[in-house]
Amino acid sequence: MTMPLFLRLRRTAAVLVAFALAGALLLAPSPPAHAADEFAQLRETWRALLVGPRDLDASIPAVAEKIAANDEVAREWYAQMDTSPDRTFVWPDLVAAEVEDDRSRSAQITTHYTRLLEMTTAYATNGSSLAGDTAYRDALLGALDWVEENLYNTTVEKYGNWWDWEIGAPLRLNEITVMLYDELTADQVGAYMAAVDRFSPEVKNTGANRIWKAHAVAGHGILTGTPEKLINARDGLSDVLAYAETGDGFHRDGSFIQHQAYAYAGGYGVQLILALSDLLVLLQNSSWPVTDPNIENIVPWVEDTFDPMIYRGAVMDAFRGRNIAREYTEDHVSGHQAIAAILRLSGSVDDEAAASFRSAAKQWILSDTYRDFVEHASISSIAEATALLADESVPEREEVLATYQFPRTDRAVHKREGWAMALSMYSERIKSYESINGEHLHGWHTADGMVSLYTSDLDQYSEGYWATVDPYRLPGTTVDTREREDRSGTGKLSPASWVGGTAVGGEFGATGIHLFGWESSLEARKSWFMLDEEVVALGADISASDGRAIETIVENRKLSDAGDDAITIDGEAMPTTADWSDTLEGVQTVHVATGEDADGGVGYYFPEEVTLNAARDLREGSWVDINDRPVTPTDVLDDTYGTFWLDHGVDPDRADYAYVMLPASTQDEVAAYAADSGVEILANTAQVQAVEDSGLGLAAANVWTDEPTEVGPLTVTGQSSVMVWDSPEGLRLSVSDPTHAEDGVVTVELDRASAGLVSAAEGMRVTQLSPTIQVEVDVAGSRGATFEALFGAPPAPGTLSSTSGHSGLRDGNHSVSWNLWWGSNASEVTIYENGEPVHTERLTVDGNASQTVSVDLTGRVNGTYEYTAEVVNGQGSAHPKPLTVKVTDAEPGTPKLSSDNWDKDGAYTVTADMWWGTNATSWRLLEDGVEIATGDLAAATPAAQRVRVPVEGRTAGTYAYVMEFTNHAGTTSSKTHKVTVR
After folding, report:
1. Which letter does DSSP use for residue 496 in this model?
2. What value does the mean pLDDT take over residues 46-63?
3. Domain boundary among 377, 398, 419
4. Most exposed: 119, 572, 708, 977, by fewest CB within 10 Å?
5. Do 170 and 306 sit in the same domain of this protein?
6. 727: which strand partners?
7. Which residues are registered as beta bridge partners of 702?
8. What pTM was estimated for this model as a whole?
9. Which of 615, 598, 509, 595 is nearest to 554 (CA)?
10. Within this chain, do residues 129 and 259 fall inside the same structural domain, yes or no?
11. By residue range, what is the domain housing residue 41?
């Protein structure tokens, strides 16, 4: 770090960065004439965060569009208002007396302030068509007073949802008050803030709720000029900034938990950093800056929690909890909120982290071709994003290729070039799904091993996906086909402890779940091995006894609006009508072409032929089906889906499955993969599930038993997830205890040797390096974390040799070999000829075992050749002693001529023999210096070569013959042979 975190002062102007448009207009708050004290400046900074500076240039296109959009919403609410003096409501659809449910009644308070906030935002923005409209202003102020008098004040008693009273209403009322501060009387500000103080007097709660409370308390302090409130807000952040050991908050493995047992990084987590980013802007340059050293945890939060779950501008649904049932916050909306927060936080961290945040934000914004960030951003975020995109000093980050395990929340993410995958599970530690306040009514199977595949088809999980997808058939899940009621199974823990996995080198992963059905005898063991181009999905021990069918859902892909995307099964195109379904036998490949380009397609390969159920169906649904809050839209939506599933039958007994997912693939690529996958399934049983990828030099196993288990190159004792990878840096071994319950040691023996241990995580003890590697891993208290060891040593140099001269000739056709008879292995060897590389070969590292690399070289001419080699592995490089080869016999051997002109009659045969030597590839016969015949020869050095040339019609005289043998290196001529004709 260039300096301690948060010690660099950040001017208010830096919050609202330059618009990088023509003229590079600076969007910074103008110093207000009334800014007589620090609280006035805080109000001005806060106001600028909400609607930009008072002299905002509304002619900038992006700003003008945002203002117009805000005005349209505000005018709609204005038009629907009842402004009569004796009114009993502000809006006719928000009448508390007409609602029996207390939660819905309390939600109306938040809804009132939400609408008034939208109206205020329009009025307070410079350039708005409503700015300065006194009738509009009076209606707005009158409505605020009516809500304070009738719904939210110091005498009313709470009912319904506490969140509306303590967070929803105060946050919105504070923002309204700061934007209208100059229009309000002291009595109005006092009344509004008294209500806020009644319901949110101090910071409490956990996670995002605590940050919101801090925001509410700080807002009250700024608007009333009360330093004690700002102190309470600042100090109240400490519980959130520290890593949590249990329950709500950020955990060191990247997990974020809210409501004690739910994975919520993409929901409450996003809202937490969004609120925190604004709070830091307000506090850091005030008299009440955050001084808690744990504020530095913001950097790993972004790196370990938010970066993994954002894909091309969208937050993965596996992390969003019940938010997926909200029509107003689909995945790209949540993603843009996270990006806005991270971009703003970049002004509050050290220089290195700031550069990383901004580079990542630029990549996310530019790669999101589905939802334009600037178009949908707030006024201040428009400024920050526009400046970022125009800043050429900030590079767009490369696509991240990595695997992430989140053992505290039973989630995993795998990112490769052009695609990503999220995996959602639950266990005895993390609950299945949350359904409260009428939301997420059909989340039944969202943690039963649900797989979300992200490709260039960026609207896959947007535009009503969760309103229309079949909730009984979510991709990746194995389900009991029983009919479910709304909210059934919500908030339940599983009996399973074995849920989780490991990652090796941060590149590849193995994850599994011991699945138990809800109020069902269904039990299964499911694994996903996340490799380079593919994900291998295995299921074993699938059993049930309730008299119902059990299914494994391979895919349920939302198709394009037309719904006629190509579905190809075993190379045959399926019908494009939306009422098609079939049960197909002997299936090995499936491809679904979705998205605007080939990279949006998804393929599946079944190593053993299966009976596959397939359908293209048009599904209808409404958001209110899964979220029955009064404000939820009731419009009926429809989408077409391509669905594929395996039917295990009624009451299966130890059924299994195996398939390979091929995201971002074409049909041709799927067919090619099926012909030569390079991946072998080593085991798929109730004891162990394992695969081996020969191309990667990787083997992985999920071990479900404590008994010693031998599979492929691994022998494992103890329930665990284990991977071994021949990485460019050396041999990597990773181990985790997904049960979180082992209090002993997992032992791993690898059928390989190593020249040395480079590094090992604390808790790993290497007991043997040769002839096999043996490791003991103390997993006590590890909570599912991965232990990794790296084996190897700089490679032994080996020796170079050549076959030149082995035949007795140095003819320029020879092989050069590098041999390591014993010693630390190389992972790659490059052979050079006179300094130029002629061959590179990747090798399997196997401790001190022998290794050989050879290259055949042909066509060298006479001369001297020096051969060198570079021998490398992850620990270093070596160079064997150079080898010199002299080529002296590259040209053809000398032919010898003879003839059979015994009768001297002018008809004879001239014969050329080359008994032993470098072969020629062509010949030419000269008679008295004139070519009379030519031909080709088959080279087979050092075998003999013969050419016979018939000659006829020669008259009396003497004829001189010379034979020329030619190859790539030159021409050799025979001695002159004379023939006399009489």
Report:
1. -
2. 93
3. 398
4. 572
5. no
6. 730
7. 689, 721
8. 0.83
9. 615
10. no
11. 31-201
Report yes or no on 689 lying in a domain: no
Is the CB of residue 148 less than 8 Å from the CB of residue 192? yes
Round the CA-based radius of gyration of the chain to a whole number and report it.
Answer: 38
Domain containing residue 85: CATH number = 1.50.10.100
Residues 384 and 423 in one domain: no
pLDDT recorded at residue 6:
30
- Picking from 168, 109, 171, the residue whose alpha carbon sits closest to that of residue 144 is 109
Query: Is 217 domain-assigned?
Result: no
Work out how many domains the chain is built from and give that number.
6
| Mean pLDDT in residue range 11-31 | 34
Among 822, 857, 887, residue at a domain's last position: 887
Predicted confidence (pLDDT) per residue in 442-495, tens digit: 999 999 999 999 999 999 999 999 999 999 999 999 999 999 999 999 999 999
Dist CA 297 CA 291 (whole Å):
13
Q: Are residues 593 and 499 part of one domain? A: yes
Q: Which two tokens stand for residue 477?
A: 């899940």
Q: Please, are residues 627 and 438 in contact by the beta-carbon 8 Å criterion? A: yes
Q: Is 477 helix (H, G, I), strand (E, B) or coil?
A: coil
Q: Are 694 and 842 in contact, with CB atoms under 8 Å apart?
A: no
**Catalytic hit among 268, 426, 657, 867:** 268
Residue 952: inside a domain, yes or no? yes
How far apart are the C-alpha atoms of 237 and 230, rounded to whole Å?
11
Amino acid at 347: G
Model confidence band, residue 18 (pLDDT cutoffs 50, 70, 90): very low
**pLDDT tens per residue, range 750-760:** 998 887 899 99
Rounded to 10 degrees, the C-alpha dihedral 154/160/161/163 comes to: -10
Whether residue 248 sits in one domain with residue 168: no
Task: Give Cβ neighbours of residue 478 (< 8 Å, ≥ 6 apart).
Answer: 448, 449, 515, 522, 524, 526, 539, 542, 550, 551, 552, 553, 648
> Which helix H or strand E contains 189, and what residues bound it?
helix 186-199
268 has catalytic annotation? yes
Q: How far apart, in whole angstroms, are the C-alpha atoms of residue 823 and residue 851?
A: 9
Q: 381 with 408, same domain?
A: no
Please tell me the distance from the alpha carbon of residue 672 to that of residue 694, in angstroms, as a whole number. Answer: 16
Pair 241, 197 in one domain: no
Q: Which residues contact 738 (CB under 8 A, 6 or more apart)?
A: 407, 497, 498, 499, 500, 501, 512, 702, 719, 720, 721, 784
| Core vs surface per residue 387-408: b (16+ CB within 10 A) or e | bbbeeeebeebeebebbbbbbb
Query: DSSP string of 349-414?
Result: S-HHHHHHHHHHHHHHHHH--SS-HHHHS-HHHHHHHHHHHH-TTSPPPPPP-EEEEETTTTEEEE
Tell me whether residue 214 is in a domain.
no
Segment 892-921 shows an average pLDDT of 95
CB atoms within 10 A of CB 950: 9
Report the CATH number that the domain containing residue 735 is assigned in CATH: 2.60.220.10
Kindly state whether residues 560 and 642 are assigned to the same domain.
yes
Burial of 761 (0-12, 13-18, 19+ CB in 10 A): middle
Sign (positive or negative) of CA dihedral 272, 273, 279, 280? positive
Q: What is the number of other CB atoms lying within 10 angstroms of the CB of residue 292?
A: 16
Looking up tokens 């400490």 gives 238
DSSP string, 689-749: EEEEETTTTEEEEEE--SS-EEETTEEEESSEEEEEEEETTEEEEEEE-TTS---SEEEEE
